[in-house]
Amino acid sequence: MGRQEAIARSIALAITSTNGNSANKRSQNLLATLLAFFSALFSLYQLALRKIRPADFANLRRNHWDVGDDDYADSFQPGEGAKKEEALSSIGDMGFSGSTFYSTADQKYLVKSVPRHSEYSFFRDDLLTPYVQYMASHPRTLIVRICDFLCLSGASLGRALGLAPSHHIVMENIMYGREQTKKRGSADWEYWDLKPTSYFYPERDIANGALTSEATLSQLADEFHGKIMLSQQQADDFFSNLEEDTKLLAEHNAVDYSLFLVRIKVPRQATDLVPSSTALDMVPIDPPSVPPSPPSWRTGVESPDGKHIFRAAILDFFWAKHKLQPIFMTVLIKLWNLLIFKHGPMSITTTPDEYRDRFLKMCRGIVEVKVAGAGNSDA
């Protein structure tokens, strides 16, 4: 079993296993317990994982997102005749966070590794309680829905050698439905991982990127050169959610988060086939995207001209200014600006309020409001 398959297997086991009778039976057999201990201790890739705050995430899934326990577990089960590790498929890097991603076979969930101590400790110790409370009280939030938080349950050689990540988050897949529409040929999907690009990025700004590989440059923030065409009501809803969501993140010292934007182009002939249909009828909207009832920024918001569907979510909010690694990076950038060349702060070394201001400005800059009965106007 390869590295990716072993990690996938450990994630699937953590989601689908219970702490009931099977654990009791193991405890009754000393030899089995010892074998399990040494197997986990010396495993290089398949780490023994446990859930952090499982009751809180179960409450969100059941009572706020309408995701049943059986349906959730089924997403992490392999197909008939398949092996446990085949319940998840590796999709490599989907952004510039340095994390690896897995997708469930039904495409409803993504599993993202959180490799840095400063990131997973911030979410676990500082943000988790306000996150759970906020997500329960703000059903239309753009902050991505995290359905489980997994961590290493004991000592492991693989973790000590840095061969496998010790923490993972399970989150909704904003791209859910792409494979179904691709098979039907009824829609074209594009996506961008957006951050303010006015900050200092050493990979890009030192020697105009000549000292950095193309692979590294490709991991930097995307740029969206188009516009999100929205009605005034849609734009007001979008900006209202962004204001509230980023306020929560700023209050807890988070910076460097991104807006994951999806644009689905719907061919006109797709809706022409069924005169009573709309563009939204072309896109699946199963859980975990609902509730609230569609349309929403999770299921898709249709542009006033009916040509596009937009989805959006706030991701990667694990970098906090008060953690040791961010403090160290802030000192380094300040010394760079003082002694070598003044570039200004990076997105990971600026203040939470300043990052929020630039982030909201970026979001407003990509929206164009379609005023009914009039020409277009920028938001």
From TrEMBL:
Ranges for domain PIPK: 1-367
Spans traversing the lipid bilayer: 30-49
GO MF terms, alphabetically ordered: 1-phosphatidylinositol-4-phosphate 5-kinase activity; ATP binding
Keyword Kinase: yes
SMART domains: PIPKc
This protein's record includes keyword Kinase: yes
InterPro entries xref list: PInositol-4-P-4/5-kinase_C_sf, PInositol-4-P-4/5-kinase_core, PInositol-4-P-5-kinase_N, PInositol-4/5-P-5/4-kinase
PROSITE patterns for the chain: PIPK (PS51455)
Keywords: ATP-binding, Kinase, Membrane, Nucleotide-binding, Transferase, Transmembrane, Transmembrane helix
Listed GO biological process terms: phosphatidylinositol phosphate biosynthetic process
Recorded GO CC terms: plasma membrane
PANTHER family: PHOSPHATIDYLINOSITOL-4-PHOSPHATE 5-KINASE, PIPK DOMAIN-CONTAINING PROTEIN
The protein's name: PIPK domain-containing protein
Organism: Bombardia bombarda
